[in-house]
Amino acid sequence: MAKINRRKLKKPPEGYEKIEPTLVKLQEKLKQVQRSSIKTENKHSSLWPVFQVDHQINRYIYSLYYERKQISSELYEWLLQQKYANKDLIAKWKKQGYEKLCCLSCIMVDEKNHKNTCVCRVPKSTLKENNDSPVECITCGCKGCASTD
């Protein structure tokens, strides 16, 4: 569940009741994944399910507001304020070329060894054809989030 300061908490805006069951279900799924991710043997792959569920939550809120237009801007801002969604990731999705971005760590070039973006951001058509193994991001397990795929 999102961290909520109860003293400063305002009553949720109108329309929250409709999306609350799905958000609660996704938050519970995230908690389960966080508990089980400790038990994996590979250091990198242990966090992949957490990134995937977090992406799913962010994409759900993004699609409700921008694509389906089913929630008000007041409710959208409240969800961002209560940290149900990552506002920086959603802001990137609105920019051309980042519509399918999996996580922000894949575009942060300062944190990578070779000072360039992650392999999942490279269009699959430009990757070498002789590589039989599927390309996965080491950070989040993404198999490709370039907008041209």
Automatic annotation (TrEMBL):
Family in the record: Belongs to the BUD31 (G10) family.
Main location: nucleus
PANTHER family for the chain: PROTEIN BUD31 HOMOLOG, PROTEIN BUD31-RELATED
Protein name listed in UniProt: Piso0_004133 protein
Keyword Protein biosynthesis attributed: no
Record key words, sorted: Nucleus
GO biological process, one term: mRNA splicing, via spliceosome
GO CC, one annotated term: spliceosomal complex
Gene: Piso0_004133
UniProt subcellular location: Nucleus
